[in-house]
Amino acid sequence: MVGIIRRGFQNGMSTTWALGKVIFPITLLVTILQFTPILPWLMEIISPLMRLIGLPGEAAVPLVLGNFLNLYAGIAAIVSFDFTIKEVFIMAVMLSFSHNLIIESAVATKVGVKWWIIVGIRVGLALMAAFIINLVWQGGSGMAQYGLISQDSTNPSGWMEIALHGIQTAGLAIIQLAFIVIPLMIIMQYMREKGWLDIMSDKLAPLMKFLGMSKNASMTMVAGLTIGLAYGAGLMIQAVDEDGVSKKDMYLALIFLVACHAVVEDTLIFIPLGIPVWPLLVIRLGTAIVLTIIVAYLWNRADKKRREESFNEQHSYHTF
Known about the structure:
Layout: H1 2-33, H2 38-46, H3 60-68, H4 71-78, H5 85-97, H6 101-108, H7 115-136, H8 159-193, H9 196-210, H10 218-242, H11 247-259, H12 263-268, H13 277-319
Helix pairs in contact: 1-6, 1-8, 1-10, 2-3, 3-4, 4-5, 5-7, 6-7, 7-11, 8-10, 10-11, 11-13
């Protein structure tokens, strides 16, 4: 048992270090940027585009903060303005697809997936969902009634205080990461050596097959669905190294998870906004399933075509 804990702790520390090198500088940079004219400038550019998806210019504030920081920053910004129920629901759907882009996309590259693919899919899904909801839903014209949501009142003044605030925020992010990743890796090490992971993989095999993936990608899916992309990246990295997850399966898993990760937490935190969360959950889960199946079908079709072309080339050579 002691050996399992030691090996799990070592894996947790190694993963925390690998992810921390990505998360710390990005968190520091983005935290500092929110106190500079750069984020307000971005909001001003985006504001005219809001009308195309049925949102007022003020909606640029929570969308920018949510995408550059996290869901909590986006929600805190939403409650600072008066929006209709429809507008809040559109923003909630958009932020559920597309939030914390910089960190989560950078983390995704650690498992071999191109960052621009992750960003493109998430932003594309957010814009498409907003456009469709605005076009289809004719209700929700009443003003949203917000619950009690705590907001960060920190307002540092001067570059020194801003820098210290950024370092503190980034440092706390790493500490939080370590407190989640290290115990998780110890638990996973125990489950792996006791054979429980093989049992879980067998149970999830039908679902993985339905989505076009092998069962050895199951732990990647479980990690992303329960604790999200950033914190689940530790298990994803380990899955690639130890479980032999193929490039195709990792891409499919990440495509599913960018649409539907941390599905419980990311859905429940929208409840205080006074919007229906069940449709939000159904939209995310349904989109993830359909998108993954389509990509898997196209991937398999392309592989089949390449194999046929390779076979024809070899056949022609031997015939000649």
